[in-house]
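Researcher: Next sequence.
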Amino acid sequence: MDYNFKIHNTIADLTEYRLLINDLLDRQKPYGFFYELDWLSTWISELGKGSQFYFILVFKGSVLAGFMPLIICTKKIYGISYRVLDIMGSRQAGWTGILARDGDTHIVQLYTEIIEKYIDGWDIAILQRLRPRDSVVEFFKTFKNTRLDYVYNVMGRVYGIGRYDDFESYIKSRSSKLMKNYRRYRRNIEKTGELRFIAITSGSEQATANLNIIQKIANNSWQGMDSNSIFSQNNKIENLPQFHANIFTSRNERFQSLSFIIFLNDIPVTYRYGFLTGDTYSSYAIEYDQSFRSLAPGVVLHYMCIEYLFNNKIGNIDFGIGDGRHKDEWTDWCDELFTVYIFKRTIKSLIYKYFRKLKLIIKFIVNYFKKPTEK
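Model: Next structure:
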C-alpha cells in the first residue's frame, strides 16, 4: 500500500483530522496527552510565539499512520545562533514518542526523509525526551543516513508503578522500611493538626478556586525560591506559569489535569500536579512549602495519591521524568529517555557536534577524578 504525507503550518489546519489523530493516539499508548491537540494549541498560544510550526501527517492509503508536530526556534548555543528543529513542546512534556501505527518502521524512515528534504531553515535537529517503549523508537535509535549524522544520547528516566489487583496488593509489595517511615511521618503530621486531602480535576469550579492555593505552595517551595517552579510567577521561562494555569483550569476534550493538595489545619502544605487520560495517570510536578519540610509531607502525599488512584480504578501510573529516592521506593519500573541529534554536514552544524562531544569528554574526565574523600 502506498504512503503519502502532508505538512501543515498551523494547528487550525488540523481540525479536519482531529478524529484521525485521536484514533492514532488511542493506539499509541503510553504517549498520551503531550500530542493531544488541546495540549498543543495551549502550548502554541503561550510558549510558541516567534516559532515556525510543521505538523507532519503520514497516510497509509486513507488511514492516518503517523503524526509528528515539529517546531523550529532560534537558540544561542556556544555563542552561536542556531535554528533548532525539535518536537513541539518537548521541554514541557514529561516525555515524547515517535507515532507510527502498528510499529511501522517505514513511517520513521519517511519522517527522516521529510525532515531532510521538505523542512527548510534548520541547522540542527534535537528530538528530545523520546521514550523507548516500542520497536519504532528502537529503530530510530539505530537509524543511519548517508547525508545526515544521527547521534543518540540518554538524557533522563521516567518511573512508574506496575499493574496490581488493588491498593492493598501494591502496598504489600513495598519495603517494610518505606511503610515504617510513612506511618511515622503520618503520625507526626497528625499530631501537629488536622490533615485534609483533596483531589482536583481541570475544568471544574474547584480547579479555579484552588489554583491560587497551588501557586502559594509553589512560591514557598525550594523550586519557587530558585525561580524554577512551573506555577510560580517568577519562573525563568516567560509564560510557563500561565501555560500550566490554563491547562489546570481548562476543560479539555480528551484529557484532564488531576491534582492533589494536602492541608494541615487548613494551611496548604504540599501538592501533586499530573494528567489523566483514560486509565493512565502521569505525575508532572510535586512541591511542598519549605516551612513544613521537617514533617516530610511528600511521603504522606505519595501514599494518599496512589491510594486515590487505585481506588478510582486508575491502574496505569507513571511518576514522570527525573530521578529521586522516592521514585525508587514507590515505583516498579524505569524507562530511559533519550535524545536524537541530527546534524547536517555543514560547518555550523559540525561546530555544535564537536563542541558538544568535547563538553561530554571534559565532563567525563572531571567526574572521573572527582572521587569521594575517604575518611
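Model: The longest strand covers residues 63-77. The chain has a mean pLDDT of 87.
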